[in-house]
Please model this.
Amino acid sequence: MMRSALILLTAAGAVQAQFPPLNYRVVPEWPNLPQHANFMETAGVATDARGHVYVIHRGKNPVMEFEAGGFFVRAWGDGLFDRPHSIRVDKEGFLWTVDDGSHTVLKMDPVNGRVRMVLGRYRQTSDAKSAMSEPTVAPEFRGSRDEGVIRFNRPTDIAFGPNGDIFVADGYGNSRVVKFDKNGKFLKAWGKRGAGEGELNTPHSIAVDQQGKVYVADRENYRVQVFDSEGKFLSQWRNIGSPWGLALTPDNHMMMTDGYNNRVAKLTMDGRIVGAFGSHGKLPGQFHYCHQLAVDAAGAVYTAEILNWRPQKFVPR
Model:
């Protein structure tokens, strides 16, 4: 039987959930970087069907590819990003990056790193007040070929539906979800800043399951909200910590970076806590602002940390 999370009071008087431990161990010295290469603020990590791991960070060669064992494959992306925030892999193997500094989402060829699709406009943003449900079209573009191009305001993450639909967490500025078809055609958007059902305060990560349910890490509201694929509110998960990053697992659970509490939690698909691992610190296996995560087909968990400037790999014992 699953143990319930204990609720304790911290010294500051804030409520903090104490989760049962998950039995994972960190893989030491993962990954192997080339000589003189370094990560900087490490924002995102993703895995593909081959088990290769892609790390995106805010320094030179911002996209780095590794084999699962940590061997370096290649790196690219200089000049493409202002402040990369997330990286994902779709079911066809294409890489997608989300850059909250330039307000763009890029689809990239995994073989040669070339950009195949752009969502948003480079370094152009939308007004949150006018971005609730419809495309934002600047006056100078009305009636032009640019009309209907969606403008984001510091987007944070991307996920893909079973039919290839694209869901973007338009996070810091607009606090909404924007939906496109697989060809990048705008379909709809939902959400606005607030704390009510269906409202969002910094949607920081997003995931979609095989039934098409959309899970949004509503970071500053300390909850995950669940919607259908058309944006209808279904439920919310509370008392789970601070959801920063979401990733579905092969055994039909949700892994979540609990960013403010410096740990990784595992939840059932109805939001019940299974357990967690990690603590605050700089040693292997510890975290300082664990930002995003990915889970490969074997169940290994990869994390990306902003303040420790590194990815880490964890495997079940």
